[in-house]
Amino acid sequence: MANMTLEFRHGEGIDRIPTTWYTSADPIDSFIWSHVILMVIAFAVIFPIGMVLGLGKSRWHIPFQVFGLVLTGIGWILPSFHGGRQYLKPNIHASFARWLFCAVFAQAGSGIYLSFRLEGRQHRRIRKILQRWHGVAGKLMPVVGWTQMMFGGETSQGFCHGDWLPMCAGHVSMGSIMIGTGIILVIITIDGERWIRKTGRSLDFYACATIAASGCGNACSEWNHREYSHVAFGVFWWVAGIVGLWQTRKLDQRTPIPGVVFLVTGWYFSMHEQPNTMAKHVHEILGCVMMSAGAIHFVEIAYFTRNLDRNCATIDYCPRKNPNPSEFVFSFLIIVMGVINIYAPPQTLWLFNYWGLDHISLMLIWFSIAMGIMCFTLMLVQLYRSLKNSEMQLIRGQGDLGIMGDTELCGLLGTDTAQGDEEEVKTTTDPSARTLHI
User: Fold this and answer.
1) Locate the Protein YTP1-like C-terminal domain: which residues (predicted)?
2) How crowded is residue 376: how many other Cβ atoms within 10 Å of its Cβ?
């Protein structure tokens, strides 16, 4: 039997990478692991908390964001000293990092400028522009950070290249959309009833819009790569989403279309041929999760639908209704579907199999990740509601519970920008006595 030999690339920093690989076989050293830990803490924990504190106009917004910037700066420097695994450059993680770094420090610069409260007509115009930028960029930062973490995970293993790119990109993008949809559903379920009343549209309208957009994008992208089975899957989502949009075009109309989509898609995943046994088991469980979500949506439509009370004098004075438990189960299953989708490409499953993990262990890990995402989302929503309740108490003269009185900082995230230049929140309590109750 002839000996197999690998040819290696030539160049500084890539001489241990085989010509058909995109990373070397060396282990990941402590510098890269430290980089990963710091960046995950900064973009997945600190910055989202800081964003909510900014939305709630808390004085802790700036300290949290400064702490996140410090972690980002340290995490940015650490990979320069690593000496373990080599990575082929340019790669998408390193390229996107430059743009992300510029956006983070532009966000910090705009926040610093707004905190100076410079007077004058010209500064007022600049403030108005920067307030909108700071608000939009602040809300997009968790999304951009999540995207960069996905790029980092794939780059660290040398995945998503060549023929594997379309399948990998489809799994990661679809999974991320599902996780984002689940998070948005949790937020709307808890604290979005007023917004739903104001728009007059049911949640199914926005769910069907997301389904139609996702199906259109998936069908068009897979057509270019001649993946006709995935094209059929995308066309089904596209057409079903359009049908759902038509059914929910009137005010406060529900539709079973999202449930139908999940039931049929779950059946498709459970029956679709896979390259190996682990992939088959994983897709079978993913199909069961999707069919469970579809069934729960049917039950929620049939027995637990909350009709909007149109007899209220105004939207603001409508009584708040407690969310149904079934709505949280549905949102959780959407998040689970997203997590499984992200880790379901064959290359990723081969790596897990190499590590000695079977599909049962993987499912427990993925359900735990989904639980963590949902728990963190619930904590952020509770933090926001606590800050808003404290603000209402302050306005009513019942005390100041940690809300900033500086309108320049109140408008950092794009809220109340029209009044931020003309009005100031007047506080009469002792700042040293301010506390935050969650």
Assistant:
1) 145-384
2) 15
CA distance 305 to 328: 14
CA distances 426 to 63, 390, 391, 395, 403, Å, are: 22, 15, 12, 9, 11
Residue carrying the six token digits 């799994």: 171
Amino acid at 417: T
Q: What is the pLDDT along the chain (438 residues), one digit of tens a residue?
A: 344 556 666 666 676 777 777 888 888 889 999 999 999 999 999 999 999 999 888 889 999 999 999 999 999 999 888 878 888 888 899 899 999 989 998 999 988 888 887 777 888 888 888 888 898 999 899 999 999 999 999 888 888 887 778 778 888 888 998 999 899 888 888 877 777 777 778 888 888 998 999 888 888 877 776 777 778 888 999 999 999 999 988 877 888 999 999 999 999 888 888 888 888 999 999 999 999 999 988 888 877 665 544 455 444 445 556 676 767 888 999 999 999 999 988 889 988 988 999 999 999 999 999 999 999 999 999 999 888 888 777 777 654 444 444 433 333 334 444 344 444 334 334 444 444 444
Q: How far apart are CA 184 and CA 334, in angstroms?
A: 11
